[in-house]
Amino acid sequence: MVVDIDVKPIASAEVDLKRPIIIAGPCSAESEEQVLETAKGVAAAGVKIFRAGIWKPRTRPNAFEGVGTEGLKWLQLVKKETGLLVSTEVANVKHVYDALKHDVDILWIGARTSANPFAVQDIADSLRGVKIPVLIKNPINPDIDLWVGAIERISNAGINQLAAIHRGFSSYDKTLYRNAPHWQIPIELRRRISDLPIITDPSHIAGRRELLYDICQKAMDLNFDGLIIETHINPDKALSDAKQQVTPPVLKELLARLILRDPEIDEQLMLTLAELRDEIDKLDDRLINVIDERMRVVEHIGNYKKENNITILQNKRWDDLLKNRLVLGDKKGLSEDFINKLFMAIHQESINKQTTIMNEE
Ligand code: PEP
Ligand code: MN
User: Fold this and answer.
1) Which of 227, 257, 287 is the last residue of a domain?
2) Rounded distance, CA 335 to CA 317, Å?
3) Which atom in ligand 1 lies closest to the alpha carbon of residue 201?
4) Count of beta carbons in the 10 Å neighbourhood of residue 96
5) Is 85 in the pocket of ligand 1 (CB under 6 A)?
6) Which residue among 29, 64, 268, 301 is least crowded, i.e. fewest CB within 10 A of its CB?
7) At what angle do helices 248-257 and 32-44 cross, to 10 degrees?
8) Closest CA to 53 of 65, 61, 37
């Protein structure tokens, strides 16, 4: 289902915001000095939008919950001294009023808030008649409708400078990532709401700084529109999310290493791509035919076994078959894992077919 939402590019009279939109700054504002020094560092790295959390949604009580309204004055200083646009997270109506009173340029709605339609609606109502860009993080659970719903609520309040932030999804299983990226979800979001910029948050996906680069490159290769990267002058001493933050020089180096491929693929490239895709379609057609042929032989064998009262599965035959296919696959440079999975799937389907035959009257 495609959703009709009026989306205008995030624009600023003072700052040129071309793709990729890079937002950087600390997870949390901690002190005037930390905020200002980080801002100067990220500005030197070519960043145009500063981020800092003023109110922090922490998993458990007694953790650092942000400096509160006082920190908004530091953001005003950042604007004055560096010319950066400034952004912060708002989670309730009071946050919105305080942020607007202190000239915050861009607001974002955090993952825990996006998951709560009441909270999003309150924020939306408080923004009616206000002209400010709003970035909406995905809800912590992998529920695309909830994400779309949050965006719709803000849009219905008359906000049209909108973007989504993809920050990954919480899962019970421990994975490589702090929050599983589930890339297909933001891709589907882009299909549902055309023109909606998608900004990837590699910091909250990764949870640790070593993984940042690959996530950023992947986001760029998927033609997403920007990145929001947590940056701190002294990451190891950060009061929140220490492991995932980088220093401004590391940020600068990371951004310089990113390869930006041209999203406007020219006509010849498109043609070549179309031809190659055509070839893939034909090969897949052949693949299905070959599998169909194989299944027919399997049915023959099934009938033969039934007539002669032989069990479906002969372990030795299956062991030998798989070993042989692994050798054949290896010769073609196909990984053991892939060949294993492929033949397990084919074998399972063969067993299913023969079971059906055995059970036939
Ligand atoms: C943050 O950006 O620091 C933050 C709290 O993120 P999220 O809402 O994605 O957890
Ligand atoms: Mn954070």
Assistant:
1) 257
2) 22
3) 9
4) 22
5) no
6) 268
7) 30
8) 65
Question: Does a cis peptide bond (omega within 30 degrees of 0) precede residue 20?
Answer: yes
21: three-class secondary structure by DSSP: strand
pLDDT over 70 percentage in the chain: 98
pLDDT (tens digit per residue) in 315-347: 888 999 999 999 999 999 999 999 999 999 999
Q: Nearest residue CA, atom 4 of ligand 1? A: 110
Residue 5 Cβ inside 6 Å of ligand 1? The answer reads no
Look at the block and give the residue holding tokens 């299913």.
352
Give the range of the structural domain holding residue 229, as residue numbers without chain letter: 21-257
| Residue 18 in tokens | 């071309």
C-alpha distance across the termini of the chain, in Å: 46
Task: Identify which ligand lies nearest to the alpha carbon of 52.
Answer: 1
**287 CA to centre of own chain:** 32
What digits encode the pLDDT tens for the residues 305-322? 889 988 877 788 899 999
89 and 212 within one domain: yes
